Amino acid sequence: GEEVTVYQLEESSPMNLDKSMSSWSQYGTTAMIQVLSREEMDGGLRRAMKVICTWSESDALKLGQVFIVKSFLPEVVQTWQKMFHHGTVLHLCLRVKCLLPCQLLTDSVYIYRFLEVFLIYCHSANQWLTIEKYMTGEFRKYNNNNGDEITPISLLEELMLAFSHWTYVYTRGELLVLDLQGVGENLTDPSVIKPEDKKSGKMVFGPANLGEDAIRNFIAKHRCNSCCRKLKLPGMQSKD
């Protein structure tokens, strides 16, 4: 197996998340993982491996549990080296984890969550990676990071699309969460979309952030559904 050091986000105020600040644990814990198979991933930014935890000194990775380890493709790292001259892969991994787990509550039967993602350092490869629990079941993609969405045929699908709408309204048009995908109510790999200041050259939320183009596309294509109406969300319109 491979020895890795595992880091996780910690909350400054676990009992009051509204006022809590998240930060990475200063010290990692050691674990051993063994590769089971290579996995296909959509999007063209990262590649994935299915692994099993064979030993762990903490509960971050549980013994015998199957996980997905994700790494950025070399061409993605090479492109982003222009912005992050040092520690490019680490910067990209941190941007993947910038989304805190969150949930949208309605009177429906569904409560959905983003999987917890850990940051790991693989000693033999001298590489930073992300790791998350492996999901079994039918994997669905509800919308993509360009703002295209499926035509919903169930309450769960309507709720997923309403969540993207809600993020745009809740942040007053400053942010939009897209790329909602996963198994049932368990989601993974969302993208935070934010219009960027082109002059600054900053990409706060990483390479999956397609910026203003994605927001305009979502506004044009999103069709409000029963969940949007239950949440009393206004119709989509451009932010002046």
From TrEMBL:
Residue stretches making up the Alpha-type protein kinase domain: 16-236
Keywords: ATP-binding, Kinase, Nucleotide-binding, Serine/threonine-protein kinase, Transferase
Pfam families for this protein: Alpha_kinase
Gene3D superfamilies xrefs: MHCK/EF2 kinase, Phosphorylase Kinase, domain 1
Keyword Zinc-finger on entry: no
Any GO molecular function: ATP binding
Keyword Protease: no
Classification via InterPro entries: a-kinase_dom (IPR004166), Alpha-type_PK (IPR051852), Kinase-like_dom_sf (IPR011009)
Domain of life of the native organism: Eukaryota
PANTHER family reported for this sequence: EUKARYOTIC ELONGATION FACTOR 2 KINASE-RELATED
Name used for this protein in its record: TRPM6 protein
Species of the source: Illadopsis cleaveri (blackcap illadopsis)
Gene of this entry: Trpm6_0
